[in-house]
Design a protein that fits this description.
This protein has 151 residues and is mainly alpha-helical. The protein is built from six helices and three strands; from the N terminus they run βααββαααα.
């Protein structure tokens, strides 16, 4: 006796992967998932579940859907997934290079911000000059006068 394949409803997959049913319908519209229909209900297979897992993993690391589709579409070539794995490896390496560059940019931006914070904190820690205190008070008086409608 053949054991029936496990299937999933849209709500089961949405809950399991913490996505919205709308996201699953979107992936279906893009041809990334192919649930069968039972009346008005979508029925997802184990294969659809695995593809969704790969889609979400790819999105998490920044792959566009077009590249995710390219990798997924190589699954059925009958070559033991060698073409799929070789393509994925090439894309993964390229993405790693891009993420490393992004990390360097982020580190540089964070260092620039920290330098700015340090400089500003040092300036604010210095006692204010009498001229700047006088200018601040004059500004405050003028602002109050305008807010009171007397200016």
């Amino acid at each position: 006796m053949v054991k029936p394949e496990r299937t999933y409803s849209i709500s089961e997959l949405a809950r399991e992967f913490k996505v919205t049913p709308r996201a699953l319908r979107f992936y279906e519209d893009k041809g990334l998932l192919s649930p069968r229909r039972e009346g008005l209900n979508r029925v997802y297979s184990v294969r659809d579940r695995a593809r969704l897992q790969l889609i979400l993993r790819g999105k998490r690391v920044g792959f566009p859907l077009s590249e995710i589709r390219e990798i997924l579409d190589l699954y059925d070539l009958g070559d033991g997934q060698r073409a799929q794995m070789a393509t994925a490896l090439k894309k993964y390496r390229a993405r790693m290079v891009a993420l490393e560059a992004q990390r360097e940019d982020l580190v540089g931006a964070m260092e620039a911000l920290q330098n700015g914070i340090n400089w500003l904190e040092a300036r604010l820690a210095e006692p204010a000059s009498p001229a700047s205190v006088s200018a601040a008070r004059a500004f405050e008086r003028e602002a109050r006068r305008r807010m009171d409608g007397t200016g």
